[in-house]
């Protein structure tokens, strides 16, 4: 008898814990009826809403939500009400893939915004590709997602017609940082650290490649585990090296303590990284020690854009508790791109989406190629690989506890 | 402000920045802006149709969003003098002044020729000619993938120093010229191959 | 190799931290042969307790002033949770199948993590932990950061106190007796339930000290910090000989130094370049664990009954 009740207790605790861990991400489903003759079209959203990267993820979610609300308010697509289906991938590829399957299975989903992490994007691509469901990522920067695994050899090949993104790739970000540091800052010796993830390793790779070609010296390199928080041994190695700076190919939950511990170990050099270090959280975690650190991020600083100012105003008016962070504007534009693609299809089909959802999805994917509008982050349009045609990026430096833009670049290939 | 504006790490608002500038700078900038405005207004009044009212300055985007500079070709390679020229093409959506083009390589000397600011008008692309001299073959970035140019642009809204990254074609052309000028062996002082 | 003293200090600081957590595993195992896999989460709660104390104090309070209160509240929180876990999650299962407490421990660990995640303000991501101001102490051959100094003081103090407690006090001797033979101890009039609660409480208190040390070291506490730390500490306990309190500390120190050395120097060995660095340190640590267990299955110090407590 006793054993049985104990077993029940154990099970209850476990189940309770599992339920807790699963909750908090799903929006209620319902009310999808055609009220007032309107069709409801769902936009899927996948981002890490819990866990270390949740600051960026929540910013993406809120900004997408803002786009959906704006579209409904302005009646952007006649006869269509947009709805958001939010899923949490916790920054894990496996979860992302499950979410992708789930979104594909939901007959109402016409397009997806997300994810944040490149490795999650990699796992979702195929699921969407098979279902012709269009996906626009606001934050994936790994070049191979759109240009295929051999992009570095110049052999660019698009793998999935359904994959689009509004963020600039690391193919530009890493080398730009290298050029900036070598030429402008006159830094000649680099220490390079990455976390072995698709994003971190890829970014560090493109950076290292360009830095060496410019004549810079790599005085040391290391790999770390993204879950670790004690980096004292690596930090001592960096501090004892003759490096002028350390390049960190990782995300801010790992990058911030790493940078702080390097400084604690006596390495009085700036840490430099990509867009995943460009977060207010990076500074918040290690206030004093982040001064002078640099990060490149996609796009021109939002404050130089009038469209962005409207976005900031509306975001504030929307009453969102958490800031929009690095990718808010890109998430808004991604969602808007999906909305515009839906609009194009609706207009082509006499004011409504095709009844067959598979057909509708296919048409929306096709329409995405021609989407063009003036978005929060500048002009939004996609090239033949699904990459954004607006390839701008900026270098930010932490000054006075804030990321301050120091240089903006435009990539213009002809 | 608080929460929302601390996000994205965006810097101070323009107004705050402006207020933080020394009074002298503010005055000079105001005066300069006024002058530019006046010039632009007069320009409009004199050259364009009378119905083209000058647009409010707040509506003009920053140069970074309106101007594009792309690579056209490399010409006049002189291996003996270690000089060559680069032709670029500038297009813009709003009138813009290209004040300076340069770059930060220690081993290259690059200037705009002729060396006065170039005015670019919407709808009328301008060709830009850059004179480049290889100062030293040592430490030349022979195979750099993303060389960029540093460009100072000014329009009615602001003056910005920006990087223009002309892309793969430009990088490959530069590499070719470097090899011609400095020889494939990257010899330290060989002027000719 | 000129950074050897620094790397040794890194390894020892990390190892002392592992050791303090490992005490909790080893004491509980020594007395009830139970592996408390929720111990990592108790460690985490100690960290949040200390952070709460710091946040309660008025802004600008010096860390040196705040530290006693942080330790106090951290220890109190962790101990309450540890004792509560024993009372409500483990005691009802005592005498049941060996696997049941293990499953409960995993459930409890998830529940505690998610509880902090859900209810502690702003804990969905890492929360900054206060840091000492001021530079390192340069001892000539090695420079110690103020954060590391905390663990270098706290760990020996804790160990000596524990050693004295176990060897000299009545309760300590009752603990030894219980670990040697619980049934006989009970017959001799020892309240074994109380002794088991003691073991949980001491382990939790030590874990809280370790959590504060980790907070100082990494500058943050997060709801997930217990997982990796708990795993490493458990490894340290096994390495040193589970059930032996000195073994736990020795195991921790060996593990910490091994990790630091692997990060710093394996990559310098010709032919092993790609196996060095921060990402391979855990692999080398576990290679060491396997080697030690092959030669001495009972761990470095072994599970000598007399030392068991």
From TrEMBL, chain A:
Span of domain Leucine-binding protein: 40-402
Presence of keyword Signal: yes
Keywords: Signal
Record-linked SUPFAM superfamilies: Periplasmic binding protein-like I
UniProt keyword Signal, yes or no: yes
Record-stated family: Belongs to the leucine-binding protein family.
The protein's name in its UniProt record: Branched-chain amino acid ABC transporter substrate-binding protein
Species this protein is from: Streptomyces iconiensis
UniProtKB/TrEMBL annotation, chain B:
Keywords, in A-Z order: Membrane, Transmembrane, Transmembrane helix
Organism per entry: Streptomyces iconiensis
Protein name as catalogued: Tat pathway signal sequence domain protein
Transmembrane segment boundaries: 28-46
Automatic annotation (TrEMBL), chain C:
Record's bilayer topology term: Multi-pass membrane protein
Family annotation (Pfam families): BPD_transp_2 (PF02653)
Entry keyword set: Amino-acid transport, Cell inner membrane, Cell membrane, Membrane, Transmembrane, Transmembrane helix, Transport
Subcellular location: Cell membrane
UniProt keyword annotation of Ribonucleoprotein present: no
Superkingdom of this protein's organism: Bacteria
Transport listed as a keyword: yes
Residues passing through the membrane, by range: 12-32, 39-57, 63-90, 102-120, 149-167, 195-216, 246-266, 278-295
Major location category of this protein: membrane
Signal sequence range: none
UniProt record similarity statement: Belongs to the binding-protein-dependent transport system permease family. LivHM subfamily.
Protein name from the UniProt record: Branched-chain amino acid ABC transporter permease
Lineage: Bacteria, Bacillati, Actinomycetota, Actinomycetes, Kitasatosporales
